[in-house]
Amino acid sequence: MGQSKISTEFPRQRAWAVAVRVVIGAVFCAGIACLPVAPVSAQNSPETAWQAGAIGHAQAMRKFPDPDRSSQATPDILPQLGIYADPSGSIATEQAHGVTPTMTNPFFQSLGTNDRSCFTCHQPETGWTVSAASVQARFAASNGADPIFRLVDGATCPNDDVSSLSAKLDAYQLLLAKGLIRIGLPIPAGAEFTVTVVQDPYGCNLNPETGLTSSSSGIVSIYRRPLPATNLGFLNAIMWDGREPSLTSQAIDATLGHAQGDAPPSVAQQKQIVAFESGLATAQSYDNAAHDLNAAGADGGPAGLFDELEQFYIGINDPFGLNPSGAPFTSNIFTLYEPWASLSGADSVTLAREQIARGEAIFNTTPITITGVAGINDALQTPNVSGFCGTCHDSPNVGNHSVKAPLDIGIAGAGTNAPPALDITGLPVFSLLCVSGPHAGQSFTVTDPGRALISGKCADVGKLKGPILRGLAARAPYFHNGSAATLMDVVNFYDQRFALGFTAQQKLDLVAFLNTL
To answer: At 445, is the secondary structure helix, strand, or coil?
Structure first.
């Protein structure tokens, strides 16, 4: 097939108006849904207070200079349709606005002081994020000088020793093993909780120069996966903890923080960055076993996402009555491979397609008794909620929640509440003691406080959003903390966490389906 190389082939014409519509500083629109986007200077919400602390911290960490740096390797153009090999087959990205010359697009330019661009952590081969395997390849090719390897947040702590190759391997161990970037966020003023560091494997949180100055002040260092910079028209919240009010603010904060820029991007650059990333649609297009994912009536690949975007609106299939149209919820989230459920033939490709169709049906129809999920059970004041995979992944043929709904399903837990089937070794552990508010007296032991570091609320401890599910095969590992090395680990987590009782074959079928998204 030759799909390991970029393809300039474009399968069909479409109106560019199908793409995400963006008006910088006014509204961010996806389909017919519009989210307000205030200019950063006008954002007075208490939940934007993190910006000054986080950016100030990143700027202050310039005191630890990077001794060994190379520039960002970047292609000259990004084609209208790019097809790239991944472990399961090929992933494809289609651009609504045509070919992008990277030399003139600020998404691909270094706007800071450390050689980074948006492209550093958001690349098409890995679904517009990074995979652990891709990070390892970049380390080997550059001896750890590639721009992703920067002390400010690529290392476990900005003061790490990187004076030798072996020291770099240690400093960048979480980035190399799990694709994790350090996120330094301040404890919100007036937070309902105090923070005690239970486990600090890198000495970053307990050092007042890089971390906490008391149990209620300073910087908390947590480690998270970069989210994909594609399929953005389906977003309900920006960043794992929903802290960014707009894609514009995200571009500004990333330039000042991750790239340690002296100044934010210009207004023109902000518009270009947001317009570029908002025009991307990405999905798996070819499977090593099932071959072409839009053959025999199937609708895999990125092209159908533009059609979904035309129909999408916030709350489109929300299971809790928030659909503005009043339409009832359906658990039949994915319909991509329904035609493959009734194929004839016994050849290997047909059998692989039938397996994918079975996996899709398992995703849609498996009943789940939802228990102990903050954001659902507590919100509904019901200890057991009857649901499906689509209860939390309700956007049709996309798989994220269609409204802003941060949840704690246990992935951030630690100690006696550590998540089953996941690897959380190497992550810091915190104890949050609620000293005010409705949860006063309660404590939480977590590897990541989640949205609580933005809201200051104990009710938000461990809560994070679920990502869009398209393009999974290219971007291992999974979950916000990279604790699932494979999609089988993801399935095993859900199977054990919610006592689903999957058979070995059902797990294989479900993984086969998830690999085709």
So the answer is: strand
* 276-334 pLDDT, tens digit each: 999 999 999 999 999 999 999 999 999 999 999 999 999 999 998 889 999 999 999 99
List, as one string, the DSSP characters of 117-144: -GGGT-BGGGTTB--HHHHHHHHHHHTT
Q: Is 393 helix (H, G, I), strand (E, B) or coil?
A: coil
What are the residues facing 212 on neighbouring strands? Answer: 218
Domain boundaries, position 142:
16-188+219-282
Exposure string over 198-207, b if 16+ CB within 10 A, otherwise e: eebebebbeb
Nearest Cα neighbor of 185 from 60, 54, 57 is 54
Q: Residue 45: which pLDDT band, with cuts at 50, 70 and 90? A: low
Signed CA dihedral, 247, 250, 252, 254: sign only = negative
Cβ 346 vs Cβ 352: under 8 Å: no
Angstrom distance (rounded) from CA 101 to CA 78: 6
- The total of other beta-carbon atoms located within 10 Å of residue 18's CB is 17
DSSP designation for 422? -
Residue entry with tokens 């991750």: 258
Are 406 and 315 part of one and the same domain?
yes
CA nearest neighbour of 239 among 253, 226, 252, 257 = 226
Residue 277's identity, in one-letter code, is E
The structural domain count of the chain equals 2
Residue 109 lies in a domain: yes
In sequence order, which ranges of 282-415 are alpha helices (DSSP H)? 303-311, 348-365, 377-380, 389-392
Beta-carbon contacts of 63 under 8 Å, excluding residues fewer than 6 positions away, are none
Cα–Cα distance, 424 to 422 (Å, whole number): 6
Q: Are 202 and 426 in contact (CB under 8 A)?
A: no
